[in-house]
Amino acid sequence: MAPILTTNPSLTLVPEPLTPENFAQFGTAICSPIPRDLNVAPQPSNLPPYNPAPVLANQNSALKYSPISPLIDRYANGPSGTASEARMTMFCCFPRKLRTTASPEKEVFDVRILERHPFTNQTFVPMDLSSHSKVGDGEDEPIFLVVVAPTLKGETATATNEAGETITIRDPPDLKNVKAFIAHGGQAVTYGVGTWHAPMVVLGRRRVDFVVVQHVNGVADEDCQEAAFGEGVVVDLGRKGQHGRREKGPQLWRAKL
Ligand SMILES: NC(=O)N[C@@H](O)C(=O)O
């Protein structure tokens, strides 16, 4: 069980659409650098500047942007000195349960735990998730919620562990500045090394499978640290629609590339 922080956060978050710019302090939001309807490989020099700059590849039939997101391994700084390896995992993420508030009737997601990987970054790439469904087309594509918190670097927080003992969490999450972002098919997300984040939250009617890329060394506390807390960090997902669909709220819900 994750240690429970003794602080009691109180915060209601309205999620923003995930963009490379607004997510930059937490990691990388990965989106295609080119429009969806560009179907003939252009000369890279005819494209707006992008970092990393693209080069032609695959017999000039592809534009290659590399690295599109870094792959970082800082396990050499870990206390145990245990060697790490690159690891690709699949997380099959089922839709989360939402809570409905009364007057106004809204759907909210309660964030109750954050975790971080102190020596590696971690990338979630959704599979089989379209970025294009229209409201009312019956497709109702799921989206995913990315919840992150800045790290209070050099600070400590007290928490209670499973045995009821008081323990110290170093570099704890800044619970006053948690942020929530709505991501959709066509986007992937890399949590920066040590970035506190909520376990993946899929919203919608069906499961989303993610390929997850990171480093691991098998030492539990070096691979993943957790901090739980009571009710208090709430993501406001807007008004509940007539048939359980979200009509309004995060218009984000239907954000398109
Ligand atoms: N982010 C997420 O859903 N889970 C993890 O970070 C994990 O490693 O378990």
Automatic annotation (TrEMBL):
From what organism does this protein derive?
Penicillium cinerascens
Pfam families per the UniProt record, alphabetical: Ureidogly_lyase
Reactions catalysed according to its record? (S)-ureidoglycolate = urea + glyoxylate
Quaternary state and interactors: Homodimer.
| Record SUPFAM superfamilies | RmlC-like cupins
GO molecular function terms noted in the UniProt entry: ureidoglycolate hydrolase activity; ureidoglycolate lyase activity
Presence of the UniProt keyword Disulfide bond in the record: no
Q: What is this protein called?
A: Ureidoglycolate hydrolase
Sorted keywords for this record are: Hydrolase, Lyase, Purine metabolism
